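Thread: adenosine monophosphate complex, take 2
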Amino acid sequence: MNDLKVFKDMTVWRKYRETLGQKIELGLVPTMGALHEGHLSLIRKSISENEKTIVSIYVNPTQFNDKNDFKNYPVDLDQDLDMLKNLGVDYVINPVYEQMYPDNYRFRLTENNFSKLFCGKDRPGHFDGVLTIVMKLFNMVKPTRAYFGEKDFQQLTLIKDMVESFFMDVYIVSLPTLREHDGLAMSSRNVLLNEIDRKLAPWFNKILKMNISADEAKKRLEENGFAVDYVEDYNNRRLAAVRLGKVRLIDNEKI
Ligand code: AMP
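Output below.
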């Protein structure tokens, strides 16, 4: 077992970060916890490419436009820390709101184009919250590389663009979506699906992969019991978000 250092106090973490020096190759994997194999694939990649790996576990309230979604977001810190210890992660930061947002979100990072489409249409302010927290994490951690999943394709694209726009000194590494054996994209929210919806959920990806138009895919999803937020094609990719009950699922496939 690895000696995992857990930092809850960001002042303590930032002091510790200074002792590591600027030359260290440090990999950052930002997460909201409730870890699954999708997260672990990013973490394993980081461990293989860096001297040290740090995982952030923080359910970022500013990216939730729906209060209930935030309230119901699954949390299992003890299990997460066990997983990270077993993997050989070096550091975890697990801050509280006051330390991430000393300005109470007075300052935020806004993108005014791509972030307004797709998920941004249904979740106003979502990507402002995402970009702001990721920038804060980059400033606090000063990673060499940061790891993100293609599952959140719009998020990944925006983060890459943010890094380029602000000359941020970090290399963004992206990894493919990990799926359950039935094709459902792994997600922390999957545990919130009831039994009936969990059986239905794999049809989301099956229909997304069909050689049919986006409009036809939307129709088929609706016929199969999904509430569809959007199905749209963008740069050789089909992006989609659906709801089963109160649970929102996203996915994307190359077309
Ligand atoms: P989250 O905890 O949902 O904010 O996700 C943290 C990181 O894990 C993000 O970069 C996600 O894109 C990535 N991620 C989430 N689910 C998966 C998955 N099924 N496969 C690969 N990466 C994922």
